[in-house]
Write a structure and sequence with these properties.
By secondary structure, this protein is mainly beta. It contains one helix and six strands. The chain is globular, with a radius of gyration of 14 Å.
Length: 103
């Protein structure tokens, strides 16, 4: 799932939880934005990725289109997982990796 809308609330697809568990990987949301972007600017990209470890500040991420981003910090968001009847199964912390585009 890729989004270019900075105001969109992320929604982890349910099948991603199962895929991550089967592969022994972690779900992270990556937000790569322009260095001087303001809130509401439509300049960045957001997506979920399955990773073996959490990227740290200073790490570089190369996107599919060749854009390079440098990790600035990580925020954690609580995501609730519900069954098909809407009953809460569990809550999970999903890391949100904030990065800026670099030349």
């Amino acid at each position: 799932m890729i989004s270019y809308d900075p105001d969109k609330i992320p929604n982890v697809p349910p099948e991603l939880f199962e895929e991550a568990e089967q592969l022994g990987l972690r779900i992270v949301q990556v937000l790569c934005d322009e260095r001087d972007a303001k809130v509401g600017d439509v300049t960045g990209v957001s997506f979920f990725a399955l990773v073996p470890f959490l990227p740290h500040a200073g790490d570089r991420i190369e996107l599919v289109d060749g854009t390079n981003c440098e990790v600035k910090r990580t925020y954690w968001k609580l995501v609730q997982r519900h069954d098909q009847q809407g009953k809460l199964r569990y809550a999970s912390l999903i890391p949100n990796v904030i990065a800026h585009k670099v030349d």
